[in-house]
Design goal:
seven-stranded mixed sheet; Rossmann fold; alpha/beta; about 210 residues
Length: about 210
């Protein structure tokens, strides 16, 4: 397997945000870095995340995506994150711990957002992997569908949806739904996702209400 290489901007961002001991204690360093670089590849290619934007991050723990996005949206932007797992506080990130499939957790998230549509919804949700391959695939597709359902409630016109999906049963139908709802849907098979052959990130832009 080829050795991973990181861009200069990636290395600078890591040094600034992840070298301190408190963060190292918070999370597994390698896993968090890999998650950040997945999103960074998408950002470098499409440049959707901009200063002042409001972004929702589903499946946020341990916090790499949220912290990276917070660094891009700046003081004028806001990140709303949600995960079943706990996450250390991050500046400019409003975190809700819980399963957004639960009505109480979803309502808390919606209240935090405050009725103003968001620019981007990110979903890095995945099942825990227990059960048969068919069951895991169905569960992952269900999570992608739920994230899309949330987009229908909170995403502004021409907004962006970036979601981790898995090729297999239900994928084509989900992809078709996104094609109907967005002007453009790109498939981004990232370097750091290649080890999981069916993992793919869908980057949907131009949300049509």
């Amino acid at each position: 397997m080829a050795k991973k290489t990181y861009s200069v901007s990636s290395k600078l961002w890591i040094k600034e945000h992840f070298d301190d001991l408190s963060v190292q204690k918070q999370q597994n360093q390698g896993d968090c870095f890999e998650d950040v670089f997945k999103l960074e590849q998408i950002q470098q290619k499409f440049n959707f995340i901009k200063l002042g934007m409001r972004v929702v991050d589903l499946g946020a723990a341990p916090g790499g995506w949220s912290q990276y996005v917070a660094s891009l949206v700046g003081d004028s932007g806001k990140v709303f994150s949600c995960d079943i797992l706990d996450m250390k506080p991050i500046e400019k990130v409003d975190f809700i711990q819980g399963d957004f499939r639960d009505e109480a957790v979803l309502n808390t998230l919606l209240n935090k957002i405050g009725g103003k549509p968001v620019d981007i919804v990110l979903s890095d949700l995945t099942t825990n992997g227990n059960g048969s391959a068919t069951a895991v695939q169905a569960s992952n597709t269900y999570l992608s569908e739920l994230a899309f359902d949330l987009c229908r409630q909170i995403l502004k016109p021409n907004g962006v949806f970036i979601v981790k999906a898995y090729k297999g049963e239900g994928f084509d139908e989900f992809y078709s739904e996104l094609k109907d709802a967005f002007s453009v849907v790109n498939t981004s098979e990232l370097i750091y996702a290649l080890a999981k052959s069916n993992e793919v990130y869908l980057v949907a832009a131009g949300y049509k209400l």
